[in-house]
Amino acid sequence: MTTAGTFPPDTAAPARTLRDLHGAGRLEAEYPLVQGLLAGLPADELSRAGHVLARADADEVLRRHPSTPTLTVAVTGHRTLGTLVPPLTAEFARHGVLLRPHLSDFDSYVFELGDPGSALYAAGPGLVLCVLDPEVVFDELPLPWTAADVEQALDAKVAMLRGLAATFDRRGAGTLVLNTLPLPRRFTAQLVDYRSRARLGAAWRQANARLLAFGDEFPSVVPLDLDPLLAEGIPAEDVRLGSYAGTGLSPALLARYAREIGHLGRHLTGKTKKVLVCDLDGTLWGGVLGDDGPDGIELGGTPRGEVFAAFQRVVKQLGSQGVLLAVTSKNDPGPVDAVLRGHEGMVLAPDDFVRVTANWRPKPENLTALAGALNLGVDSFVLADDSAYECGLVRHALPGVAVVRLGEEPAWHVGDLLCDGWFDTREVSTDDRARPTRYREELDRQSFLATFDSVADYLQQLQTRVSLAPVAEREVARASQITLRTHQFNLTGHRMQPAEVRAAAARHGNRVLGIHSGDRFGDNGMVGLVLTRVDGELVHIDNFLLSCRVFARGIETACLRSVLSHARATGARAVEARFRPTAKNAGARGFYPDNGFTLVADEGDVLVFRHDLAEIEPPPAHVRLTAAYEENR
Predict the structure, then answer these.
(1) What is the pLDDT of residue 313?
(2) Each residue of 422-443: b (16+ CB within 10 Å) or e?
(3) Do 528 and 470 fall within a single domain?
(4) Residues 199 and 283 occupy one common structural domain
(5) Which of 169, 259, 274, 459 could in theory staple to 380 by disulfide, Cβ–Cβ 3.0 to 4.6 A?
(6) 178 neighbors 211 (Cβ within 8 angstroms)
(7) Is position 462 within any domain?
(8) What are the boundaries of the signal sequence (predicted)?
(9) Is residue 7 a part of any domain in this protein?
């Protein structure tokens, strides 16, 4: 049995195994094994593993395994923060990301964030953590102090932090995390009258609310609210360590903070999950449908049945924000369909799922088939299942699938599902909310394809329409998301935060062109990007991305040939394009050569192709494309 927010104790030896690897000098050489070794570790083992992993040489790991996703993280704040590095290292490693930490000096956060020439900015971090604690306010109070003094200090501190956030945001690179301030009782209790305590509490919450609003004001800032973590019973501080070691937040809170940052780091490196696949028996309802029948399963109507209904409500909530929902269950399809459509306790409906698979095949086979149908990798899947056997089987056969083992107590299921933030993202867009509908439409396209004798006939009848135009301000978040979530047709592997997209689009001679598509089955929304740059008589394609949802329809070819034609029409003598191989884009290596480009340079990790614009093939006849190229001023 697990408890909410913890991992099932599937193993107790990985920390020792990591120590053995490190002691033998093999940790860097065997680093790809680390993610599997950390899977399922309880919090105390994970913390110990972090201390071992923090000793690994990141440069050596990258020399041996150059495709390892890596993120440079700068840590700054008011107090001593070295204790944050081990749990942060472990949390990143658990998601397959290598941490490169940059730790600022004690209480240097104002200088480090306020001066673009500081060592923090020089480190080139993709993520900056400014860890705030209550002492940033109380260290500046007079003695004695009043609630009014705290209000004044809070106003000044929030104004100062806003200025630091604005400075960071203007740089147009990376993400800054600012957390809310806990308010321990040892401060409020120093005011002996309840009226002053209430005034202090109100001022403190208002200041935190203003901090949380920074995310709306500055695109590069992510506020992290610590209140939900504290509500789990985690102490805000360790007074003894604070007094003698200069720490601000407790080790337990820093470890929980590190987990939240691990979720963000996973997202920033393009590893956010997309699909939640649920079991049925013991997961979406209690009991076994095949044995108990539709009337015997536990779903609504009783306290235990209501617990399963509550779990379904959470699953439906995730689906409403763009998470693709699916079912794989060892059951006969007829009874499953009858329950999904007709059981009065069901919260989820058949239309909430992109696919419901009920059969007796091994679950790894079903997951692989679903991944193929959706044109997604299985590493974008999360499986929620109550069976230890099925979870172990999937972990072994498909190690890229995130497996959430649900225990026997259904009251803990919600906590177990949500504790790892598998689907966390910077912002939920209109495109995200439409994603489940669009993937269901994609399955309809596949059924439509099956009615044709040839792919060419299918494409002709699909009525594909494409627009290519500069990304508008309202589309910046979606454009950034495409760079974070697109792997197979991301021709350089480069990922961009919203501020970077905005900055690239603003530079003279640059274009960030959004690709929108649709067809007879519906509107696909923004599905790709082309980033171009003019340098004299040369046009450079810095990157080209297209969602796997719309592969093999001629969209990428039509857009590329439009870019070539526009370059020639505006006086360019050639177009150069870069291709950087990654672990997942090997299938797109031939895209530029197949469209008339010649390899002109091999820079080791980057191939440079050139098109002389003498002969440009027409776009595919079945694609109706409109393009707009606006000059940046």
Answers:
(1) 97
(2) bbebbeebebbebbbebbbbbe
(3) yes
(4) no
(5) 274
(6) yes
(7) yes
(8) none
(9) no
- Residues 281 and 181 both lie in one domain: no
Q: Indicate the residue type of 117.
A: G
Residue 174 sits in a domain whose CATH number is 3.40.50.1110
What's the pLDDT band for 573 if we cut at 50, 70, 90? very high
> pLDDT tens digit string along 60-92?
999 999 889 999 999 999 888 989 999 999 999
CB 352 within 8 A of CB 324: no
**Are 215 and 222 spatial neighbours (Cβ–Cβ below 8 Å)?**
yes
Residue 221 is given by DSSP the state E
How would you class 13 by CB atoms within 10 Å of its CB: exposed for 0-12, middle for 13-18, buried for 19 or more?
Answer: exposed
Q: Which domain holds residue 335?
A: 275-419
Q: Which residues touch 454 (CB under 8 Å, ≥6 apart)?
A: none
- Do both 138 and 244 map to the same domain? yes
CB 230 within 8 Å of CB 62: no
Tokens encoding 444? 């309809």
Torsion sign, CA atoms 492, 496, 502, 507? negative
Same domain, 470 and 346: no
Q: What's the rounded Cα separation, in Å, for the pair 496 and 264?
A: 14
Domain count, the chain: 3
Quote the tokens at residue 79: 């107090």
The answer to whether residue 3 is domain-embedded is no
Residues 252 and 366 both lie in one domain: no
Q: What is the mean pLDDT of residues 418-446?
A: 81
> What's the rounded mean pLDDT across residues 103-113?
92
| 158 confidence band (pLDDT: 50, 70, 90) | very high
At 176, phi and psi to the nearest 5?
-110, 130
pLDDT 10s digits, 368-419: 999 988 888 899 999 999 999 999 999 989 999 999 999 989 999 999 999 9
Instruction: Give the CATH number of the domain where residue 329 resides.
Output: 3.40.50.1000
